[in-house]
Specification:
This protein has 246 residues and is an alpha/beta fold. The protein has ten helices and eight strands. The protein is 33% helix and 17% strand. The strands form two sheets. A six-stranded parallel beta sheet has the order 2-1-3-4-7-8, with helices on both faces. Strands 5-6 form a two-stranded antiparallel sheet. Strand 5 and strand 6 form a beta hairpin. The longest helix is centred in the C-terminal third of the chain and has 15 residues.
């Protein structure tokens, strides 16, 4: 689907845990070639951001690069936020009924300890505000996230991955998202049917739990990292979102 450059939309691409803006290298030029403006961000302690995860103590601090970019936008400019209109690409999707940590809490509770394989969890912070970092290991990355992605992209993440955090302790203390704010945003969920990181059963549960998904799209034979395993199909979904909701 081609889009006239004058009518292009602004996509803001946000990476997942342990990754960086580099993870969008296949998607960004494709969207730009279709006439869109694209911003790929490094969150705090991610990609080439100079902070270490031990210096980041909240989701707000982690999201600061995104918050600053959004604050600098012209007043009437709309963006299509991809991760996380909001497009959730097999991403954790909060609701407006529970505390912000609820969906992540459910995921952790439903995930057996041995399913994390060689992922490393390490405490940091203080006794008053404890945090835990998370660093995906090679086995977890190759079997849960990248099992259908090209070997070159697997090698890329093994070289560039950095420790991250789910910030569960911080999110558990925050107020739930409002229906007037987060709940009013058009949300689209892109489901990847071969995702071993967030299995399709949990993806479906999130969709039903949110109560506000406008549309569900499916990418067949995509692993968790659809931007690597199925970049053309992912871009087709994003262009359709821009056409329908942008």
């Amino acid at each position: 689907m081609e889009v006239d450059r004058k009518q292009g939309r602004h996509f803001v691409l946000v990476h997942g845990a342990c990754h960086g803006a580099w993870s969008w290298y296949k998607v960004k030029p494709r969207l730009e070639a279709a006439g869109h403006r694209v911003t790929a961000l490094d969150m705090a302690a991610s990609g080439i951001n100079r902070k270490q995860i031990q210096e980041v103590h909240s989701m707000h601090e982690y999201s600061q690069p995104l918050l600053e970019m959004m604050a600098a936008l012209p007043p009437n400019e709309k963006v299509i936020l991809v991760v996380s209109v909001a497009v959730f690409l097999t991403a954790f999707m909060p609701d407006t009924l529970h505390r912000p940590s609820y969906v992540l809490d459910q995921y952790v509770e439903r995930t057996p300890n041995d399913a994390w394989l060689d992922t490393q969890f390490s405490p940091y912070g203080s006794s008053e505000k404890p945090q835990n970092s998370m660093f995906f290991g090679p086995e977890f990355i190759s079997t849960k996230l990248y099992q259908l992605s090209p070997i070159e992209d697997l090698e890329l993440v093994l070289a560039l991955a950095r420790p991250a955090s789910l910030f569960l302790e911080d999110l558990a203390e925050l107020k739930k998202f409002s229906k007037e704010g987060y709940g009013s945003v058009t949300s689209v969920f892109i489901r990847c049917d071969k995702d071993e990181g967030i299995r399709k059963e949990f993806q479906q549960w999130m969709i039903e739990n949110s109560g506000g998904v406008k549309e569900v799209m499916n990418i067949k034979d995509a692993d968790h990292m659809a931007m690597f395993s199925k970049p053309e199909e992912l871009c087709a979904c994003l262009l359709e979102v821009a056409h329908k909701y942008g």
